[in-house]
Design goal:
Elements (H helix, E strand, L loop, with lengths): L13 E6 L5 H14 L4 E5 L3 H8 L2 H4 L2 E5 L3 H18 L4 E5 L11 H22 L3 E6 L7 H15 L2 E9 L2 E8 L9 E7 L2 E5 L1
Parallel strand pairs: 1-5, 1-6, 2-3, 2-4, 4-5
Antiparallel strand pairs: 6-7, 7-8, 8-9
Helix pairs in contact: 4-5, 5-6
Length: 210
């Protein structure tokens, strides 16, 4: 069975794309955004660090008109945006998809990991509520790192929480330079669970999706 891009996410559900640094998480998220726009959609893209890279990947001004990029720089601001501001934005504006890149990246700067974990749970609950209310897909990215400090405990806990809340989970693996493998670890569509597909990167852009 050949996997299409829109097979890996669904309306009314949370989808997690995770993997190590430079595995193509942002690139795949942008590809999904472009897919939505090409089908007449409007995407809200929340970025914690990659706005210029995202705009570079998108390139076209016409596409950027259909993609609203919001930046956040600390976990508290992210929490307020997701739990307080986003519900208002989604109520007052038309969006067909919401992407957050990344949902856990800013937490590493938090001193209180127990509090950060609780905040993450609230954020995911709020996102799932909005996804179901407006019948839109919510795409989340999260990095898995080789860490040797106390943040590792939070990262493991965060992954467990994400696995609980997300209906769909895609793990990215670096195969070789410019080649990535995506494994669908969890899906609301049982026919594609466990399936894999390979894609190529060139300057961060997905140039071939097998």
């Amino acid at each position: 069975m050949k996997i299409k891009l829109n097979d890996i996410y669904a309306k009314g559900e949370l989808t997690l794309i995770y993997g190590p640094a430079s595995s193509g998480k942002t690139s795949l998220a942008v590809k999904i955004a472009l897919n939505e726009v090409s089908n007449g959609g409007v995407v809200l893209f929340v970025s914690t660090e990659n706005e210029l890279f995202i705009e570079k990947l998108i390139g076209s001004d016409d596409v950027l008109k259909k993609l609203v990029i919001v930046s956040v720089r600390n976990f508290s601001s992210q929490h307020f945006l997701i739990t307080k501001t986003l519900p208002k934005i989604l109520k007052e504006n038309y969006f067909t998809a919401l992407i957050i890149d990344s949902i856990t990246g800013l937490a590493r700067f938090e001193e209180d990991y127990a509090k950060a974990t609780l905040m993450l749970k609230y954020q995911l609950a709020s996102l799932l509520k909005e996804a179901r209310l407006w019948k839109i897909p919510v795409i989340l990215t999260s990095q898995v790192r080789a860490v040797i400090d106390e943040y590792e405990d939070y990262e493991v806990t965060a992954k467990t929480i994400l696995e609980y809340w997300c209906n769909n989970i895609v793990r990215l693996t670096i195969i070789e330079k410019g080649v990535r493998e995506a494994t669908i670890e969890k899906s609301s569509n049982p026919k594609i669970e466990g399936k894999k597909f390979v894609f190529k990167l060139n300057g961060g852009e997905i140039v071939k999706l097998k």
